[in-house]
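[audit] Reproducing an earlier prediction to check determinism. Same input, same settings, fresh worker. If the tokens differ from the archived copy the diff job will pick it up downstream; this log only records the rerun itself.
[audit] input (138 residues):
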Amino acid sequence: MNPILGDGGFHHVCIKTREWDRTIEFYRDVLGCTEKIAWRAVPQRAMMLDTGDGNYMEVFEDLEYRPAANGSVVHFALRTTRLDDVAARVRQAGAKITIEPKDVTITTTNGAGAVPIRIFFCEGPSGEVIEFFQNVAT
């Protein structure tokens, strides 16, 4: 157990895609990931695919998206059971919080029901975007 994050660890990597079907087929059919939750509709679909051990690939459809030179990773997320305490530590360390801690409910489209989460985002020391993610469903 991580003494700072609690029952934390890696949660997901987020990517954007203009080619929804091709991307989902790759992760599902080629790599064996399974759909956990899906939300939103065309042309802004979103899905979390379980990679097999409770860690996820999060995919957002964005028809206008143009990958940066370094690829299409949008952010990575760390799971925590102590989100507000972690936000205080991040703030105290001088890191820039780009989205303050907040509660969000993901309204799914695949029958998984409403998924309540608590999140915040910050910039890491090298400019990387880090999401901290707290919930019980995923």
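[audit] rerun output stored. Observation attached for the diff report: The CA atoms of residues 2 and 16 lie 30 Å apart.
[audit] end
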